[in-house]
Amino acid sequence: MSKNTTEADVAFIQALAELLNKNELTELSVKREYGDDDSLEVRVIKQVTVVQAAPSFVQHAAPAAGPAAAPAAATPAAASAAPEDPAQHPGAVTSPMVGTCYLAAEPGAAPFVTVGATVTEGQTVLIIEAMKTMNHIPAPKAGTVKRILVEDGTPVEYGAPLLIIE
Question: What is the pTM of this model?
């Protein structure tokens, strides 16, 4: 960093932060040379929190026949039925990149896959748009689509679970 911090440097850093926000960037790195052994290196990073829509699970209790029904007994069975982290499922298809996930080729078109559909290895199951490029995501194996974990048009992170094929 510069030996002499000046108001001009502070203004420069503020301008970089504004540039970061204005252009929807997440990181900006600049090195400014002032002369012999005098420079200013600035790295501005904006923390971005991506909220993924998690599938919601609704548990309906069976109608109680009387006081003999024990709701506590149903709770452990329901918890073991659904895996806690879909990314750890052996049939999980994860996102190979950061981008926006689309379930159909274009708005209004039929989705590539639906729950219960049979897919073949290499078949396109969805599209991830990254940097204005549409990337077809193929099924890594043949099987049946058990769950779709994303909604059409939602942002996804690298490694995020997208769907489950068994």
Answer: 0.49
